User: Fold this.
Amino acid sequence: MLLKRFYDQTLAQASYLIGCPATGEAIVVDANRDVQQYLKAAAAESLRVTHVSETHIHADYVSGSRELAKRAGAMLLLSAEGGDDWQYRFAQEDGAKLLRGGDAFMVGNVRVDVVHTPGHTPEHLTFLITDTAGASEPMGAVTGDFIFAGDVGRPDLLERAAKVEGTMQGAARALFKSLRAFSALPDYLQIWPGHGAGSACGKSLGAVPQTTLGYERRFNWAFAIDDEQEFVRQVLAGQPEPPTYFAQMKRINRDGPALLGERGELTELSADDARTAVERGDFVIDIRPAASFATGHLPGTVNIPLNKAFTTWAGWLVPYDRDLALMADERESAEQARRKLALIGLDRVRGVSVVPGGGVADNGRRATIAQVEIPELRDQIKSDAVAVLDVRTPAEYRAGHLPGAYNIPLGELPARMAEVPTDKPLVVHCQGGSRAAIAASVLQARGVGDVRNFRGGITEWERGGLPLER
Assistant:
């Protein structure tokens, strides 16, 4: 048996290719939309993708299962669990085979046993993998968002993200029962989870790529709680706020992701084209580093640097109902950004304007964002000369914030613009500077006139020995 793990850093998401070299057949589980990577990897091993499946209806990225099955001519297998209220609506249209707990199927000499493991979602499946060429029992389990290294899948997303009211308490109880039943399997069973550290699908995911059931039984907090009510309390406590785009992902993946097909290169936009895009209401994203954006950019654009957090902040801030354009310092970066946007269903990218080194000039006009240092900010706060906006999470804010600072988390900023103080110059900050730089660009693009960025953030403020309010 061949096992290959694919990991997308920006999504903290894992998918798996499991193949039988003897027959040349392979299955891909939990594919994302970058389907070419699976086809290329299979071909390199002289395999063909004959089966495509997924553990559940995902909330944090657009599934590539439908696209991959079409491209590969593979059988699409989807969960039939979950009840009438939460089903794949495109399964019949695509001729998908529906799976229930207790089912099994073969991929060459590899046996896949289907276990219904509700909790994270009602329809969630786990796949037990047996290499029948040398064994009669499973060696591992593709657990999706059921069991992670060090954590378990959060049961509140259906209610908090997809707005299916009154579901998270019942889902937490179902998760408790799923964990107890799964514990009957052997300690040696390898766990191949769907996410790693940084994913919002749990609250304390480990960074190791895989684990074993025995290890998790000993050290995963969720297995240590024997009382169902206490488990429900703990699993629901402290879960991070789900990004706004999670609701879109649930709907898209339930109803059927659009097929991308082969896409050509991005259309080249001139500086005039980019300005026109802003004027007609397109959402223009400048993906350059924050320092480059601050020194000169096209007025009306929003800066989301192309780094590890790009997909997350794009999901929070970029609207799904508007055409998009990119500003980049090179075409390769723009193509990479388009691929990352497609992973979360932001498909309406119309072109890229390549920015020459030294900043953007728009027929003599260019916007900048002033940077504020500690001595200046300290004096301005003392004299009440500025308003301070803290764009960290409420928990971070409660733990300690600058004197008199307002708190609006970055992801909530577009929806809460009416709360932004505009009667004096506005200084924006976060923990270390990255979120504040994005927030400053959002505020400026929304018409807030005098926006300044305290790029050192709380980290630098504390390093300077200055007081915080709590």
Summary: Residues 370-463 form a domain with the Oxidized Rhodanese; domain 1 fold (CATH 3.40.250.10). The mean pLDDT is 94.
